[in-house]
Amino acid sequence: MTATQKWTWSRIAQRIRVPLGFLFAAVYIWLAHPTWYFIALGCVIAAPGIWLRAIAAGFVKKNRELTTTGPYAHTRNPLYLGSVIIALGFGVASRNIWVAVLIVLLFFAIYLPVIRSEEKYLAGMFPDFDEYKKSVPRLFPRLTAAGRAGRGAFSKELYLRHREYNALVGSAAMMLALALKILWHSRSTGIF
User: Fold this and answer.
1) Residue 182 is part of which domain span?
2) Cα dihedral sign, 118-74-83-170
3) Is residue 2 part of a domain?
4) CB-CB contact of 109 with 180 (8 Å)
5) Is 1 inside any structural domain?
């Protein structure tokens, strides 16, 4: 960081979001009160978020061009929208209202400043970002693609380069941890 750069909350949020995610995962497992039904319901809710992140990763060409096709024709932040949907699934699977509240608070405290910071960066890097911003909402998607969106094509190579399969692996690991908590609790209470 140069002397002219300031430590703003957006910059701090960008740096701590991944380590904070791991810390939150541990707290999440500890506070969760899962049942098989709620794990299944959480998986059903999280699945579209995982799918959206996968599709978005196959369209985005980070730092090379302003992506306005695919899911980016409906929302400027499909990756974050996918994360919100996955988080909702986790909130349901936890069967704990305090976990759900914590998820919402973390989103507003961490991801909204990160989104704003990234949009400021994109506006400086791509002159047509301001026009794109006028026709495509920040997070909650439009039902129809933005006017000049173009078609674009999903790229499996981009999906793999961005390692987006980690969203699926991480989500599966968290749901497995919830299942193991049920089994451990059942065993420790003598149900099995």
Assistant:
1) 10-142+151-188
2) negative
3) no
4) no
5) no
Q: Looking at the 3D structure of the chain, how many domains does it have?
A: 1
The DSSP code sequence of 72-141 is GGT-S-HHHHHHHHHHHHHHHHHT-HHHHHHHHHHIIIIIHHHHHHHHHHHHHH-TTHHHHHHHS-SSSP
In which residue are the tokens 């995610």 written?
21
97 contacts: CB under 8 Å, gap ≥ 6? none
Q: What is the CATH number of the domain that holds 108?
A: 1.20.120
| 86 token code pair | 């996955």
20/34 Cα distance (integer angstroms): 22
Per-residue pLDDT of the chain (192 residues; tens, 9 = 90+): 444 456 787 677 677 766 777 788 888 999 999 999 999 999 999 999 999 999 999 999 888 899 999 999 999 999 999 999 999 999 999 999 999 888 888 888 888 888 998 999 999 999 999 999 999 999 999 999 886 656 678 999 999 999 999 999 999 999 999 999 999 877 666 554
Q: How far apart are CA 95 and CA 58, in angstroms?
A: 33
**pTM of this prediction?**
0.85
Site of tokens 């949907």: 85
Here the tokens at position 125 are 């890097």
User: How far is it, in rounded angstroms, from Cα 24 to Cα 133?
Assistant: 32
